Amino acid sequence: MISRRSMWSEGKLIPVLSIIGFIVIIWYGFSIVLNAPWEYDKAKRSSITLSNVELISNTWSQKRPKLPAPHQITNEIWDTTVNKKVTSKRSLVYHGLITFYETIYGFIFGTCLGILLAIGIVYNRATAMSVMPWIITSQTIPILAIAPMIVVALGSAGFNGLMPIAIISMYLSFFPVVVGMVKGLKSPDQLEIDQMKTWSASKFQVLHKLRAPRSMPFFFTSLKLGMAASLVGAIVGELPSGGGGGLGFRMLSGSTFGNTLHIWSGLISAAVLAGTLIAIIGGIQKVVLKRMSLEM
Amino acid sequence: MIQSNVINVSGLDLTFETNDGPVHALKNVNLEISKGDFVSFIGPSGCGKTTLLRVLADLDEPTSGKVNVNGVSPREARESRSYGYVFQAAGLYPWRTIAANVKLPLEIMGYSKAEQIERVERVLNLVELSGFEKKFPWQLSGGMQQRVSIARALAFDADILFMDEPFGALDEIVRDHLNEQLLKLWKSTNKTICFVTHSIPEAVYLSTRIVVMSPRPGRIIDVIDSNLPNERPLEIRDSKEFIEISQRVREGLRAGHTDD
Q1: What is the residue range of B121's domain?
Q2: Strand, helix or coil at A293?
Q3: Which of A49, A241, B27, B133 is deepest in the core (most CB within 10 A)?
């Protein structure tokens, strides 16, 4: 595992920055290529010829570009976070918070469900045989196809707003937790299991004192995957819900009205949100595993 | 008979079903172990010595035959926590301190907090590891870890101690030292010890009785009663009696080997 400190201290800052710089340059290039036809059109209609410099500066400052340039996205994000009230529907923070809460609820539900299912699968052969096929089947169904049905069904049962979206988010996030935790709870070796048997430990004691602590490295890895899935679930869940808000809603409305800046700023906010949440789990993971001497 | 013999085995057979067909792990094993005995099981790998120990501890089930531990079936003996088992590896939990590792079976068995503390202190003292309570397993050498695992097996009041090659992974010098300590411990606690090993000097040095076993199928070739005195300094290994017993063990092992 590469810690952040070693990543910077071993002189990797320069490679990382040059990759980012490279991506930005390519991005600017594509902005020119993709946005140029519209500029040519406009110039033709008003019968003027564009110099190269004019063309380039025009493609980087369109109001509704096909591909907005990086500085336009940065300005958009700055404008919609710092310059807008948090309670405004035009604020990215407002939408980000909605997605954040949906993600967290979905993540908590999904993690609990995943752990319960994993315990059932590890401890009961019948559960393993009967539940596992359904769990796998559930993940083969495109979430986009059933998300509207979940929203409608829960809506008619009186659940509106955050709850249906959290359920959709849970639907995606429980899976990595089940898979990881089954592996984790089964990770004690035969000697450790035999040892527990010689003490006549109860099933619960084996779970509580041996299997659960042994599963911690798997647990944190599952949480990271589950968190990423929760966020995707929350964004997908916002699409059919309409109106409510959230980064997914923001991106959808951006796409409806051809506002690429909204799409890109929403996209990048979602990535930053996911990155932050996963980094937080990673930080807790480091501290906990180190304290448990389980660091790999 | 029940009073004098802690362990009775008669006509024990065990066959494992494997993908390559049945494996005859133990064949017609008969054995009596009296209270306070130190019995070593010695033989080449695959002779079923570990399997026999696991049957006595109810970790494996025999195909046929009668087994009595403390006058009851191995399962009842296990459930009444009448033995401690020391495995080849120490099997300490890295997230628990030494004291907490020794405490683990006591927690499981529901001893009171005060008693847990008192017992942990006593058994760590017994294996000469007082002062290491707050250390973690990775801070201890392999020999010390194995001593912790012995302490853990002694922490509850089992009068039988099963030991499956507990010093197999340790170097000769550490091993000698632990053998000496184990003898002292056995004398001071008056437990019945069943000890699996493949080292002849270890078996002869420690035991009051030596059970020589042979593979394919696993069976008992010879049971040797040791006439060595109770006081056994390490130098006893150069004595005539010691060498004689070693020779008899070696002959038994060789006889078993020519059979296949």
Answers
A1: 92-157
A2: coil
A3: A241
Confidence of residue B101 (pLDDT cuts 50, 70, 90): very high
Residue B252 lies in a domain: no
Show the tokens assigned to B77.
């003996």
DSSP E strands: which ranges in B98-240?
160-164, 192-197, 209-214, 219-225
DSSP annotation of A6 reads H
- Where residue B45 falls among pLDDT bands split at 50, 70, 90? confident
Q: Map out the domains of chain A with their CATH numbers.
A: 4-67 (no CATH), 92-291 (1.10.3720.10)
CA neighbor of B149 nearest in space, from B138, B137, B134, B135: B137
Q: Is the pLDDT of residue B260 over 80?
A: no
Task: Report how many domains make up chain B.
Answer: 1
Q: Across the interface, which of B81, B85, B138 has its CB nearest the CB of A293?
A: B138
* pTM exceeds 0.95, yes or no: no
ipTM value, please give it. 0.90
Give the mutation candidate from A196, A200, A211, A290 for the B interface (greatest B CB count, under 10 A): A200
* Structure token digits, residue B120: 């942990």
Determine the residue type at A133.
P
In a domain, B42, yes or no: no
